[in-house]
Design goal:
By secondary structure, the protein is an all-alpha fold. The chain has nine helices and no strands.
Length: about 350
């Protein structure tokens, strides 16, 4: 081939190669742009998948199914709590009624109130147990719960458990209400009965029926012993200072009157030196007795100001804490109290 001559057409496909080179030069930028766009969309999807409030593990797309599955159980437990709060309100009212009936010495009303309160306190305890079991049975809670249920569901369940905790001890508080009221009522009855029996003994003594009088005084001493045993029960929760003085004064007088009648019986009613001495001792002991029954009112007040009032206050405090916890709950639309069937407590 002569020098300088072009080699065009030296390869049969040279023109085709030139066309391909030009096509690649045009398509390569387009393909690159498409790849970048695809990567961009993929990255956006990845970022959307991990996007959640800073500092939390919230993953609504992962917890939604569990949240929906437990929602009916949550709503039912909320309704149960609202119903239980009404029972606690009633229990607080009964506690105040028991105090009023005790102060008025209205035995019939007191007995009725204490019986209703006992049953209601047992019911509240049973209701709390049923609700707690239902909340414990909800799926998704426990270790790593933040991966299975939403923070809102966790907070709602925790609030309900906190509300249940406020009812802990209500039954024992009512037991103190009942025990204090019954003890005060029984105490008043015993001391009143003791005074009446001793009055009978004095009447028998003035009639020279010394043997009968001695038996009557012995009966009065038994009543006083029962009051003393009741005093030991009340000492753990009540101020028994006045009661101690009352029992001591009456015990001294019972012993003095018994000694006088025994001396008179031995002397067949004849006033001897021994009778005179015994009569003087009886007079001294009688002077130490309260002039009237106002001491009984003070004793009852002491009992009320001790365990009885404190128990009623603890129920009021539990009621306030329960209502406060319920106020923080996100109530479902149209939520209403949903009483749950529980077994009635067996009367003790």
């Amino acid at each position: 081939m002569p020098a300088g001559q072009q080699r065009t057409g030296s390869h049969p496909n040279a023109s085709h190669l030139i066309v391909i080179d030009r096509a690649v030069g045009i398509l390569l930028p387009i393909v690159t742009l498409i790849g970048v766009a695809v990567l961009s969309f993929g990255s956006a999807g990845i970022l959307a998948g991990v996007d959640h409030p800073p500092g939390t593990l919230a993953r609504p797309e992962l917890t939604w199914a569990n949240d929906e599955a437990i929602r009916p159980g949550m709503d039912l437990a909320t309704g149960n709590l609202l119903a239980m709060s009404q029972d606690v309100d009633r229990l607080a009212t009964l506690a105040r009624g028991a105090i009023a009936a005790m102060a008025a010495r209205d035995t019939a009303t007191l007995s009725t109130t204490l019986a209703e309160g006992r049953d209601l306190a047992g019911r509240v305890e049973s209701e709390a147990g049923v609700i707690r079991n239902r909340l414990d049975a909800l799926p998704g809670f426990g270790p790593d719960q933040t991966l299975r249920v939403s923070p809102e569901s966790i907070a709602r369940r925790d609030a309900m458990l906190a509300a249940l905790d406020t009812t802990s001890g209500l039954a024992s508080s009512w037991a103190r209400v009942s025990g204090g009221a019954l003890a005060a009522n029984q105490l008043t009855t015993l001391l009143t009965s003791h005074d009446a029996v001793m009055a009978d003994a004095a009447h028998q003594g003035t009639s020279a029926a010394y043997t009968r009088a001695l038996a009557t005084v012995a009966g009065a001493q038994v009543i006083l012993d029962e009051a003393a045993m009741l005093r030991d029960q009340l000492a753990n929760t009540s101020d028994v200072t006045t009661l101690d003085r009352w029992i001591a004064a009456n015990r001294s007088y019972d012993a003095a009157l018994k000694a006088l009648y025994a001396t008179l019986e031995a002397s067949h009613g004849v006033v001897t030196a021994a009778v005179t001495k015994a009569s003087a001792a009886e007079a001294v002991a009688r002077a130490q007795l309260p002039p009237d029954t106002r001491g009984l009112v003070i004793i009852v007040a002491d009992v009320g100001q001790g365990g009885l009032n404190q128990a009623a206050i603890s129920i009021e405090q539990a009621r306030a804490r329960l209502n406060g916890a319920l106020a923080t709950l996100p109530l479902p639309s149209g939520a209403a109290p949903s009483p749950i069937p529980v077994a009635s407590p067996t009367a003790s």
